[in-house]
């Protein structure tokens, strides 16, 4: 992707019954448009056809992260300190698997999310899915 001027923001592989979707999120300093997604999709398809890392049938989707961008790494969470996020956890923290709060600190592989005035410390490997909450 970098050869085309895009940053690979993240990857999701979602199974829903017999159907699977491989979702690639790309970004760039100038933003992403539909032509960028098409170019990245062609490059990814060519690589996936040769490497063949997924043996079952799947649909490839390429998109920008969008306003409610998913967050995948500690660096990405760190870029959005002070921003609101919703987090889905594998194991509950403070009795909940679904949290909404402010990203207040990232240290190593630990995230501090302030929820209703309380700081919750969450291991990044406990996060199933994290997204920014879009501001309008």
Side by side, the strands of the main sheet go: 7-6-5-4-8
Mean pLDDT figure? 93
Radius of gyration: 17 Å
Query: What's the architecture of the largest domain in CATH terms?
Result: 2-Layer Sandwich
Our count of domains comes out at 2
Question: What's the order of the H and E elements?
Answer: EEHEHEEEEE
CATH class category name of the largest domain: Alpha Beta
SS-based class: alpha+beta
Main sheet record:
5 strands, antiparallel
Proportion of residues in β-strands: over 45%
Number of helices: 2
What name does the CATH topology of the largest domain carry? GMP Synthetase, Chain A, domain 3
Low-confidence stretches: none
Name the CATH superfamily classification of the largest domain: RimP-like superfamily, N-terminal
DSSP strand tally: 8
Quick recap:
The protein is of the alpha+beta class.
Structural write-up:
The protein is α+β, with helices and mostly antiparallel strands and 136 residues long. It folds into 2 domains: 2-63, GMP Synthetase, Chain A, domain 3 (2-Layer Sandwich), CATH 3.30.300.70; 74-132, SH3 type barrels, CATH 2.30.30. The protein has 2 helices and 8 strands. It has helices at residues 34-51, 74-79, and strands at 7-16, 19-27, 59-63, 84-93, 96-107, 110-115, 118-123, 127-132. The strands form 2 sheets. A 5-stranded antiparallel β-sheet has the order 7-6-5-4-8. The model has no long low-confidence stretch (mean pLDDT 93).
């Amino acid at each position: 992707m970098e050869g085309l001027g895009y940053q690979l923001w993240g990857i999701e592989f979602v199974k829903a019954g017999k159907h699977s979707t491989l979702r690639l999120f790309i970004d760039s300093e100038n933003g992403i448009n539909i032509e960028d997604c098409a170019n990245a999709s062609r490059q990814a398809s060519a690589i996936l056809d040769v490497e063949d890392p997924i043996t079952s049938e799947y649909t490839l989707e390429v998109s920008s992260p969008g306003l409610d961008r998913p967050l995948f790494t500690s660096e990405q969470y760190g870029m959005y300190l002070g921003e609101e996020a919703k987090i889905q956890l594998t194991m509950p923290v403070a009795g909940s698997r679904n949290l909404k709060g402010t990203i207040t600190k990232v240290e190593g592989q630990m995230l501090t999310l302030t929820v209703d005035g309380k700081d919750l410390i969450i291991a990044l490997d406990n996060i199933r899915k994290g997204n920014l909450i879009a501001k309008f």
